[in-house]
C-alpha cells in the first residue's frame, strides 16, 4: 500500500511539473519580440496636444438651412470652394466660408413621382449634385442624381449687368453675376443614380480647352447599380466583366503625364476561389486612347490595374485592404532621393479587427507594377498565376500608342482577359507611415501640406487625417528623412495634435440639443447624437491666413493649421515637434512667425527637446501632452472618453500631464522591449517559486503517507470492506478505538450482513494485526471470510439479539 501511494503521487507530481515548465516556456518565448516581425507594429502614439474646444473667434463655419444636405466638396478653385448638396450648388469663399453664389436645381415633379413609384424613399428622390467640373472660368458642367434619373447641365456665368432675363433657366447668384443654362443632357455614365454611391471624376485638359471628351469618370450605371464603369465619351471599360471591375467603390482620380489614374477598392477576383476579400486598386488608362477596331471601338484598349499593398511586414503580414482616401501627388526629398508620393488612408474591413493606417506609394513603383508581369487564370478552376513572357503579345498590351485603332486583335484580346498585374504596389519604405488599431475611431480622409520647412532647414510632410468621430489628427512624417531614431529603433511619426472639430451632442427630453453651441463655436451636432464623420479636408493657404477646411455631411468648418500659443514654455513648445511652431528666445513665446529670426528660434522636430530650454528639457519617452479640456466632463462622456481629472488645474489653465493616446486612458504606455523583458522576468520568477513550493509540498505529502501507513491502516481497510458488505464485523474486533460486536446469549457470532448465524468461530483469540505483517493478516482474514460465508448458509437457527459496546 505504501509503495503504491508513493509511486502514484510521484507520477502526478512529475506530470504537473512538466505541464508548468511547458506552459512557462511557451509564454516566455511567445512574448519575446522578434526583430523584423513584431517590431513593425507601432506603440500607441499619444498626441502632443489635444484640443477639445477652439475659441469661436478662430473658427469659421458654413451650414445650410435645410436638413441632410449631404455636402460634397467637388472642386477647390484657389480662394473658392464648389460644394454639391441636395438640390443646390454653393460657391463658398475659402477664407470666410460665406456663400458668394448659389445655384438651385430641383428635379421635376414627374421625375420625383417616377422615383417614388420605383420604390425609393422621399429623401432619395432629390437631386444630389455629384459632379461640378469647370470647363472655363465662365463655364461649368454640373451633374446630379435627379431623383434616380441622372442629368447634366452646362451653365455659363454672366458678367454683372448682362442679365438674360429671369426665367426658369436663369439663377441669380448670392452676389454679383448669374448662372445661365446653356445645355441639358442625360447624365448616365457621368453621375450615379444613387447619391450614396462613391464616384470620382477629373478633367484631362487645361482650363479653357476642356470638352466633354476630356472628362474621365468612375461611377456606376443603371438604376440597380449593377454596371460599374470608367467612362470617357465615347469609351468605357468592359461591361459586366468581373475581371475589369467587380463592385468597385471609387475613391479618387488624377491626370498625370499622358495617363489618368483611378484609385478604388473592389472585391478581389483573384481571391474568388478561396472566398471573398476586398483589395485596394490603382488603375490607369491612356489619354490618347481612341478605342480599338470592330467590337473594341467603344472600349478602352489601355486599361490596366494593380493591387495596392499596405501592410505590417512580418512572417505573416497584416493587411489594410480597404482604400478610403488619397492625397494629391507630393514631390520632395526623402532619405536623400527625390520621389513623388501619394499618401493614402487604408483600413481593415468593417467586420474585421478595427484598424487604420496611412501608407505612401511612390509613383515610380506604381508605373513599375504596370510594366511587370500580368496575372491570369487558365480556366475557372485554376489558380491565378503570373503569365510567362512568351505568351505576352507584341506590341505590349496597356502601352500608349499613337493609333489604338490599328492594334492587332491578339493584343486586344489579351488585355481584355488579363487587365490585372501580378505584382502589387509596395508601400514606400516598406511599412505604413502611421497605424491606429482599436474601436475608438477609424481614419476617413487625408490632406497633405507637403515639404513644410523647419528651423533646421529640413522639410517634412505634414499630414492631416480625418476620423469618423469628428477628430482631426496632425501627423509629421519624421521617418521620411531618417530611418532610425537616437535609440536605434525605427523612426516613428509624431502625432502633434488631436483636434475635436465635430462633436456629437445629447438630445434633451424637450427635443432640443443639450449643450448646443453658439453659431461661432466649434463642435457640431446631429439629431441622433452619433459621431460625425469627416468626409473631406483641404489645406487652404493665403498670404494672410493658413486654414484647414473640414467637411462633414451637413457642415463645413475652417480651423487653424497650428496652435502654437497653447504651449506656454520653451520645453512645451519644442516638445510639440511641430514644424509650424518654434520658441522665440527674444519674445519668450511659442510662435509660428519664427522665419523672421531663425537664429533665435528653438525647435527640434526629430528629438522634441533642446538644451537651450534648460538642463531638464529632455523629456521621458511618451511623456507630456498639453491638453485643453475646457469642454468639461459632459463632452468627454459623449465621446466615451476616460477623462483625467488632473489635466487642468484649479484655474482652468493648461497643465502638462502624462500623455494619452486618442480615446485612451492616461496610463503610461511602454515600448515592446520593456514589455518583453517584464513578461520574461515574471515567468522565470514564477517558475522558480512554483518549483520551490512544489518541492516542499511533495516532501510534506510524502511524510504524511509514511506516517499514515501503520497498524490502524489495516483496521481502516476492514471498516471500509465491512461497510461494503464484504466482511463480518468480527474482523474489526480488537482495533484501536473501533467498535466490538458480540452476541449476548448465543454461542456463535452473528453475520450482520446476511442477518444469519454462522458456525462458531473464535476470532477473539486471533492476535491483533501488526504493522509488519499487514498483508499476511489480510490474506488470512479473506480466507476466514469465505469459510464464514459458507457456514452461514448452513445455519438455520433463529437470529439472536446483538448488543454493541463502544470502547
Automatic annotation (TrEMBL):
Its main location: membrane. InterPro entries: Plexin_repeat, PSI, SEM1A_sema_dom, Semap_dom, Semap_dom_sf, Semaphorin, WD40/YVTN_repeat-like_dom_sf. The keyword Repeat does not apply. The keyword Membrane applies. SMART domains: PSI, Sema. The chain crosses the membrane at residues 675-698. One of its GO terms (cellular component) is plasma membrane. It comes from the Eukaryota. One of its GO terms (molecular function) is chemorepellent activity. It is found in: Membrane. Residues 48-561 form the Sema domain. Keywords: Disulfide bond, Glycoprotein, Membrane, Neurogenesis, Transmembrane, Transmembrane helix. One of its GO terms (biological process) is positive regulation of cell migration. PANTHER family: SEMAPHORIN, SEMAPHORIN-1A. This is Sema domain-containing protein. The lineage of its organism: Eukaryota, Metazoa, Ecdysozoa, Arthropoda, Chelicerata.
Amino acid at each position: 500500500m505504501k509503495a503504491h501511494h508513493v509511486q502514484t503521487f510521484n507520477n502526478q507530481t512529475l506530470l504537473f511539473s512538466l505541464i508548468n515548465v511547458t506552459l512557462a516556456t511557451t509564454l516566455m518565448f511567445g512574448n519575446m519580440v522578434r526583430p523584423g516581425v513584431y517590431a513593425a507594429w507601432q506603440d500607441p502614439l499619444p498626441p502632443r496636444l489635444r484640443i477639445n474646444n477652439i475659441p469661436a473667434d478662430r473658427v469659421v463655419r458654413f451650414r445650410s438651412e435645410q436638413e441632410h444636405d449631404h455636402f460634397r466638396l467637388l472642386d477647390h478653385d484657389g480662394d473658392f470652394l464648389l460644394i454639391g448638396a441636395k438640390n443646390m450648388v454653393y460657391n463658398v469663399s475659402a477664407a470666410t466660408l460665406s456663400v458668394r453664389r448659389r445655384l438651385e436645381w430641383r428635379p421635376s415633379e414627374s421625375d420625383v413621382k417616377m422615383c417614388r413609384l420605383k420604390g425609393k424613399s422621399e429623401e432619395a428622390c432629390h437631386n444630389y449634385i455629384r459632379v461640378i467640373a469647370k470647363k472655363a472660368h465662365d463655364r461649368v458642367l454640373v451633374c446630379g442624381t435627379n431623383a434616380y434619373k441622372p442629368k447634366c447641365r452646362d451653365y455659363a456665368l454672366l458678367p454683372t449687368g448682362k442679365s438674360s432675363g429671369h426665367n426658369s433657366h436663369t439663377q441669380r447668384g448670392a452676389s454679383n453675376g448669374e448662372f445661365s443654362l446653356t445645355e441639358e443632357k442625360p447624365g448616365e455614365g457621368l453621375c450615379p443614380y444613387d447619391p450614396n454611391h462613391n464616384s470620382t471624376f477629373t478633367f484631362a485638359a487645361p482650363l479653357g480647352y476642356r470638352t466633354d471628351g476630356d472628362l474621365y469618370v468612375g461611377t456606376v450605371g443603371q438604376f440597380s447599380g449593377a454596371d460599374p464603369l470608367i467612362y470617357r465619351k465615347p469609351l468605357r471599360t468592359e461591361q459586366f466583366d468581373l475581371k475589369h471591375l467587380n463592385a468597385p467603390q471609387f475613391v479618387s482620380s488624377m491626370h498625370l503625364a499622358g495617363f489618368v489614374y483611378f484609385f478604388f477598392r473592389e472585391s478581389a477576383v483573384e481571391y474568388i476561389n478561396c472566398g471573398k476579400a476586398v483589395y485596394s486598386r490603382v488603375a490607369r488608362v491612356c489619354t490618347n486612347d481612341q478605342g480599338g477596331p470592330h467590337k473594341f471601338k467603344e472600349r478602352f484598349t489601355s486599361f490596366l490595374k494593380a493591387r495596392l499593398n499596405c501592410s505590417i511586414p512580418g512572417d505573416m503580414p497584416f493587411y489594410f485592404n480597404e482604400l478610403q482616401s488619397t492625397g494629391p501627388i507630393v514631390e520632395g526629398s526623402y532619405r536623400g532621393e527625390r520621389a513623388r508620393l501619394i499618401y493614402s488612408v487604408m483600413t481593415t474591413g468593417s467586420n474585421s479587427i478595427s484598424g487604420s493606417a496611412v501608407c505612401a506609394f511612390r509613383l515610380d513603383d506604381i508605373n513599375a507594377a504596370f510594366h511587370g508581369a500580368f496575372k491570369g487564370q487558365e480556366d475557372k478552376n485554376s489558380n491565378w498565376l503570373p503569365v510567362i513572357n512568351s505568351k505576352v503579345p507584341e506590341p505590349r498590351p496597356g502601352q500608349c500608342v499613337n493609333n489604338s485603332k490599328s492594334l492587332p486583335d491578339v493584343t486586344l484580346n489579351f488585355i481584355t482577359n488579363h487587365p490585372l498585374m501580378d505584382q502589387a504596389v509596395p508601400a514606400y519604405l516598406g511599412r505604413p507611415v502611421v497605424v491606429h488599431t482599436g474601436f475608438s475611431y477609424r481614419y476617413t480622409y487625408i490632406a497633405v501640406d507637403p515639404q513644410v520647412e523647419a528651423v533646421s532647414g529640413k522639410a517634412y510632410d505634414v499630414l492631416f487625417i480625418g476620423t469618423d468621430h469628428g477628430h482631426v489628427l496632425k501627423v509629421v512624417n519624421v521617418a521620411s528623412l531618417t530611418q532610425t531614431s537616437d535609440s536605434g529603433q525605427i523612426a516613428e511619426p509624431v502625432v502633434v495634435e488631436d483636434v475635436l472639430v465635430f462633436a456629437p451632442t445629447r438630445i434633451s427630453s424637450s427635443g432640443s440639443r443639450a449643450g448646443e453651441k453658439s453659431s461661432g463655436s466649434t463642435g457640431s451636432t446631429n439629431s441622433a447624437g452619433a459621431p460625425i464623420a469627416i468626409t473631406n479636408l483641404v489645406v487652404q493657404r493665403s498670404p494672410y491666413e493658413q486654414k484647414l477646411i473640414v467637411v462633414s455631411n451637413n457642415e463645413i468648418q475652417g480651423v487653424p493649421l497650428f496652435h502654437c500659443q497653447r504651449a506656454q514654455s520653451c520645453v512645451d513648445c519644442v516638445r510639440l515637434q511641430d514644424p509650424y511652431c518654434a520658441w522665440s528666445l527674444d519674445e519668450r513665446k511659442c510662435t509660428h512667425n519664427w522665419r523672421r529670426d531663425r537664429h533665435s528660434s528653438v525647435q527640434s522636430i526629430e528629438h522634441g527637446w533642446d538644451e537651450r530650454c534648460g538642463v531638464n528639457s529632455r523629456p521621458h519617452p511618451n511623456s507630456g501632452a498639453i491638453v485643453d479640456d475646457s469642454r468639461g466632463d459632459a463632452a468627454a462622456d459623449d465621446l466615451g472618453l476616460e477623462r483625467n481629472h488632473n489635466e487642468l488645474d484649479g484655474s482652468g489653465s493648461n497643465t502638462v500631464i502624462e500623455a494619452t493616446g486618442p480615446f485612451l486612458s492616461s496610463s503610461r504606455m511602454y515600448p515592446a522591449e520593456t514589455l518583453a523583458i517584464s513578461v520574461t522576468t515574471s515567468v522565470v520568477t514564477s517558475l522558480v517559486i512554483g518549483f520551490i513550493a512544489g518541492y516542499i509540498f511533495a516532501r510534506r505529502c510524502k511524510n504524511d503517507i509514511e506516517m499514515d501507513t501503520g497498524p490502524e491502516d489495516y483496521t481502516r481497510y476492514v471498516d471500509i470492506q465491512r461497510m461494503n458488505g464484504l466482511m463480518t464485523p468480527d474482523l474489526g474486533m480488537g482495533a484501536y478505538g473501533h467498535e466490538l460486536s458480540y452476541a449476548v446469549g448465543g454461542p456463535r457470532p452473528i453475520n450482520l450482513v446476511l442477518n444469519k448465524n454462522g458456525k462458531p468461530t473464535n476470532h477473539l483469540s486471533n492476535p491483533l494485526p501488526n504493522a509488519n505483517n499487514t498483508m499476511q493478516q489480510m490474506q488470512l482474514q479473506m480466507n476466514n471470510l469465505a469459510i464464514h460465508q459458507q457456514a452461514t448458509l448452513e445455519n438455520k437457527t433463529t437470529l439472536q439479539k446483538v448488543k454493541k459496546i463502544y470502547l
